[in-house]
Design a protein that fits this description.
The protein is of the alpha/beta class and about 250 residues long. The protein contains ten helices and nine strands. GO terms for molecular function: catalytic activity.
């Protein structure tokens, strides 16, 4: 299984993306597993809060390139229905949910962290959109969650330029809520969710719902457009260039 779970005596469920040899890619099976675990955790009264992290010193290097081959639009859109369910559940999760980021959060890994209402990062963590490097647009809700944190103009530039943002700058921009010492993101995140879990759950839910109000149009847009981009010649070239470690030659088709 590509994710591990561990619940402490304090009621904090730690979900770990666990494919460290590949920097924890977020493929379709991983998204399905994560959705199932979050659904169960949301309904489990013994779970007070959830922390999402990655194994091996990295959060996630993004989508699984090996899982992005050409499929029918219907098949792609069925997969994106899972993404929509997952991201909606994360953004509106009924209990405190925090991403604990060490190392890289890139592409889909960046999006996954941004889907969490709160983000803790170690001081050496790095964030990058990187979708356009393989001729794709952002998905997992990043078109909504990143502008909500940094503003539309800055989000557009970060997405289009694929500029790497280190944790201290990410904290200044609002991408990260709390900084931790290297190796300490998980402990800081656990302390944070326990503090938040002491608050009034019903009021918290309505507040979280309000701040996620603009997410649905972005998820609908990516479900309509991203499948066509994945099947494009440019995306095929992007995947090939990534595998061959060379610059891509995009043709706009």
């Amino acid at each position: 299984m590509s994710i591990d779970t561990q619940k402490g005596d304090d009621g904090v469920l730690v979900i770990t993306l666990n494919e460290p040899d590949r920097r924890n890619p977020v493929g379709h099976a991983t998204r399905q597993n994560l959705l199932a675990v979050l659904a169960e955790a949301g309904a489990d009264d013994s779970v007070r809060a959830v922390v999402l992290t990655g194994a091996g010193g990295h959060f996630s290097a993004g989508g699984d390139i090996r899982d992005q081959g050409e499929r029918s639009l219907a098949a792609h859109r069925a997969r994106f229905a899972v993404i929509s369910d997952l991201v909606s559940r994360m953004a509106r999760f009924p209990k405190p949910l925090v991403a604990a980021v060490e190392g890289w959060a890139a592409g889909g890994g960046f999006s996954l962290a941004m889907a969490c209402p709160t983000v803790v990062a170690s001081r050496d963590a790095r964030f990058v959109a990187s979708f356009t490097k393989i001729a794709l647009m952002p998905d997992l809700g990043l078109l909504s969650t990143l502008p909500a944190r940094v503003g539309p103009a800055r989000a557009r530039r970060l997405i289009l330029t694929n500029r790497v943002v280190g944790a201290p700058e990410a904290h200044e921009l609002g991408i990260v809520d709390e900084l931790a010492d290297v190796g300490g993101a998980l402990d800081t995140a656990v302390a944070l969710v326990l503090e938040e879990a002491e608050g009034p759950a019903m009021a918290r839910q309505f507040i979280v719902d309000w701040f996620a109000r603009d997410l649905s149009p972005a998820l609908e847009y990516e479900q309509a457009v991203q499948p066509m981009l994945i099947n494009s010649a440019d995306a095929a070239e992007g995947r090939a260039a990534f595998a061959e470690k060379r610059p891509p030659q995009f043709r706009g088709c």
